[in-house]
Amino acid sequence: GRAWRIEELRLKSFQDLHTLWYVTLRERNLLETQQEEARRMGVRINLQAQIHMAGACRKSMARIKAVMNERRLAYEGAIQLVQEHKEQLKDRQLLQLQRDAIVQAQEKLSEFVTRGRLLKREKLRKLAKAREELRAEGVLPQVVEAEGAAQPEAVLADSVAGEQQVRKSSKTTPAASESSTPTSPNISNTPKVVKVEPEAPSRPQTAAEAAAAGLFGGSPAPRK
């Protein structure tokens, strides 16, 4: 005789709500059919009771539909939450994998640097050990002395070659200057006495100056 309350319907299961909805639908259709048959046959019935019962059926059906929609929305929201949770788990796993990859790369880099340092130390240690063995055998001092003696001989040879080049250039320079001066026809044929001044003794030159003089083909400026 009354409509179902929404608190009562929320306690029902999904299958019970479906069954109750179809029962109220059948009852509403039966009441409407009775009203139409009574009107067609001209029978007087209690219309107020029929209208009240039909309204209660419509209210019950609307409330059942509202409860089912609530459950559907709750189910969809739960599914969405589960999907978001799964996505968050995937993101966390990807971040963890990325962090692990970064840590592994740093470990490999530190291991490579440490290995390089150890190899360098090992090479230096072997080199020092070889030097100690050569010194103990007396080979290393002889090599050092031979290198030290070869350097002054090379410097002396360079200085001698430079001096020879300077002397050759000083001899060829006056002849070239005399040949370049023009002869005048009005000059008398009396021989002129040329006073030759003795050359000032030149100081020994370095190997660098001698090499520069030989390269540019001129005599270097004498030192004062």
Query: What is the CA-based Rg, rounded?
Result: 61 Å
**Helical content class:** over 70%
How would a crystallographer describe the biggest sheet?
none
Percentage beta strand: under 5%
The average pLDDT value, as a whole number, equals 75
Biased composition (Low complexity): 171-191
Family: Belongs to the universal ribosomal protein uL29 family.
GO molecular function, one term: structural constituent of ribosome
Subcellular location: Mitochondrion
Question: What does this protein look like?
Answer:
This protein has 224 residues and is mostly helical. It is 79% helix and 0% strand. The chain is built from five helices and no strands. The protein has helices at 6-10, 14-41, 47-137, 139-180, 207-216. Helix 2 runs antiparallel to helix 3 (47-137) and helix 4 packs across helix 5 (207-216). The termini are far apart. Residues 173-196 have low confidence and may be disordered. Residues 157-224 are annotated as: Disordered. Keywords: Mitochondrion, Ribonucleoprotein, Ribosomal protein. Residues 171-191 have a biased composition (Low complexity). InterPro entries: MRP-L47_sf (IPR038340), Ribosomal_uL29_mit (IPR010729), Ribosomal_uL29_sf (IPR036049). Belongs to the universal ribosomal protein uL29 family.
